[in-house]
Specification:
By secondary structure, the chain is mainly α. The chain has helices at about 5-25, 35-40, 45-55, 60-70, 85-100, 110-115, 115-150, 155-200, 205-215, 235-250, 250-260, 265-300, 315-320, 325-360, 370-395, 400-425, 430-450, 460-475.
Amino acid sequence: MANFSWLDYTIFGAYLLASVAIGLFSARGQETMKDYFLAGQKVNRFVVAMTIMAALFSGVSYLAGPAEVYKNGIAFSLVMLSFFIATPFTAIYLLPFFYNSRYFTAYHFFQDRFSLSVRLLASGLFILRVSLWLAAATYAPALALEKVTGLPLWFTIMCTGMVTTVYTVFGGMKAVIWTDVMQLAVLFGGQLVIVLLAASKIPGGFAGVWETAGADGKLNISFSFDPSVHATFWATIIGGAFLSLVQMATDQVSVQRYLTAGSLRDAQRSLWIKLWMMLPVLVLFYGTGLVLYAFYKFQGDPLSAGHIQKEDQILPYFVVTQLPSGLAGVLIAAIFAASMSTVSAGINSLTSATLCDFYQTLSKPESLTEKLLLAKSRWYTLFYGVLVTGLAFFISTMKSNLVQSVNTIIALVGGPMVGLFLLGIFTKKANARGAIIGCVVGFVALLGINLFAAKQVNFLWHTMIGTIITMVVGLLTSGRSASPSVPHRSP
């Protein structure tokens, strides 16, 4: 296996230094929590849309999306259609509660609707889920670099975690946003280069890709309702909609970005802009899998030949074996770009949840100065950067592929979380007791499915199952004493 050339290392190193420089530059003028967590709420709606999309397109997306299509065909890619359900639902029904109430976190809502205990439970579940999710996003580029350069996995995990943590500690949300913009350009530009170069070496070009994929069944879509079948049409649309709601409507990573917009209308528009920006990007991502499948149909499958151990390594394998010196450095920087934007956004949101939902609510108000809170914010960011880096080593031991691993993590906690939000917003009967019991039962049920029935119930259905169980149990155990009405506040 060829290693990086000096030119590749130079390009890659320059990219990492540029990310740190943006973080240090963004630290100027930060005096309040609003500056650190919401970038002063002065961000243009187009930039908000870009940073939301960048936060959700991790290195896992970069590696796992094409790998899933390469192995199993385009069926899973239909999950992109679920955004047409999740986006209007979030923009119309959920976003007003977050923005009009001027919350710093998504989970403050639960204190107004239920109790402080429910707020802390929801925020704690978010911290658990996103810590594991970010660990996967840290592991993905480390896997790529190990294959491309031969550097030890532990070294590249440490490199990703340290660089991302440094610029996020100092720059806060402003650093996250502007590195997202830079990383988004590198990310999609790199993917486009891969597709064009691979297609140019396939007989018939893109027509040859489509013909090869069709002949080998990679374009087949199952309409079965059998929950054990992988990525059926119904699982990707219905189950995918619930998965999208987890990250779009209940996730502090996304909600915090909505709140950086100057008004509710701008925040809602940013969601619609993100939807239309995301569709061609997803087509490119999943289409890369078909192009690589057709390419290696003629060149020989590296997985069968033993050149790679997992299908998740197919993209970096193509980069190192097919791209000229210099361009390989740009492409691996693109994989890092995706992961760094996700990790930086995630640890910033973990910090805001910890500080606002736990530290502030459990401390004496008179002791909380803006200077103290800003200092605490940076220390918490450092802590989560170290934690996520450590958890990445655990993710590296998982045997399932990245798509299944990450979506299982999302569903395990995300299903009960969606159920909690729907209980709070759309029901009057549910109270704090029912919300807590429903959430715990939903989590335990999904844990049981993962441990004992993972093959019988495909991971795409898990979030929906967790949501329904949480809502039903929550309503049944609430009794006759309802919580206060759903809060409606004006800006």
